[in-house]
Every structure is written in structure tokens, then in C-alpha cells.
Amino acid sequence: MGFDQKGFLVFRVKQGNAGKWNVMEAGIEKPLASFDTQKDAIEYAHDLGSTKNGSKLEIFNERGVQIAEVDTTSSPRRE
């Protein structure tokens, strides 16, 4: 499992080579799911993370630069 140094389970939303937005667990190369839009990928990742105590979501832009980090266990999903 992809844990950070503080013990958080980390999920990442990144754009893949085919232009799809992938939801990945940190440290695992194969996406858990792929979506046409970043918004759909973020919603899925947030919902997934909210079921796991002590998880966070890292969101990256099209260039692969991290633009946000969200504690999914304490923050409501953004619409």
C-alpha cells in the first residue's frame, strides 16, 4: 500500500499517457481507475479515500505538477 511518512494512505490523480485521468495508489504503477475528466477522477478518488481512515489525495495538473493535497477523511468533496 502507498503510505506517506506520516502514515497516510495516499491516492493520486494524474493524467496518463493516453490523456485519461488516472486514480493511483502511491507506489503502485497500475491505475485503480481511469476517467475522461479530472473532475470525475477527483470525485472517485475522494470517495475511495473517504472509506479509508487516514488517507489523503494528491492532485496533479496536466504537466505533472502537484496542485493540491486533501485529507479525505476530514474534508467534504468539492463539486
Automatic annotation (TrEMBL):
This is DUF2188 domain-containing protein. It holds the Pfam family DUF2188. InterPro entries: DUF2188 (IPR018691).
